Amino acid sequence: MHTADRRVVLGLHRSRHRRDVLTGALDLGVTAIDTASNYLHHRSHHVLGEVAGDLLPKFSISTKVGYFEDEHSLSPARLRGAVEKTVNDLGREPDALLLHNPEHSAPNAEVLWQACAVLAGAAEKGRCGAWGISTWDPRPLVGLDVPRPDILMVRSGLLVSSGVLDAAEALVTAWRPTRVRGMSPFGGSVTDPVWQKFDPRMFLRTSDATPIQAAFRVAFELPGVEAVAVGTDDTEHLRELCGGLEHEIDADVLRAYWQLLRQSA
Q1: In the chain, which residues have pLDDT < 50?
Q2: pTM for this structure?
């Protein structure tokens, strides 16, 4: 079972990049941002630099490249250009730069290796602090080799299918990333009807958590990750999530749930 310190990351997918949310996150001790070059209609990096330039040194910034305005591409030349544009738009080197959903381009082993080599080279040259891969659906990547990444980012939480969970664990075993991060812990939104019909507190040993806190806490275990990126423009929602990190998981219930997922698949 995952035991490392748990970290909340403010995700900017679908976010309006509001300064008050960024300052509120800092007040809560959330000092990590996750974004991507294509967020906010391909303007995320530029808007961050404009809206929160003076705040950015207080954050660890993780971003992603791979989606361009005309297509998704793993072309080494385009990725090298995206690295330089990222640094210029942010006004600083990102702390982590991830290859964004490489499965989108259905790469073979050689194409994926070359794309990863561009980001690994950027890290070696100081254009980013670390490099890695972010994948929405890791299943097409199983069996493909890459240079050892610093970070692997995958979907996590109760709404992730057993096939995706198993594939994520297979990549962790094969690629041996230094860090594993989760994303989309609520499958899109806490207002989804599933969270009104299902009480995830059954996975906790304590009873004083809210259902949203319980679902978020479980996202650190399915699969085991050290940090989870969650998108919100509501500081109170972020406060609620931060308040649920220390709840203890019932490992037996969680293990039984995963077994049921595999059986149903």
Answers
A1: 1-4
A2: 0.95
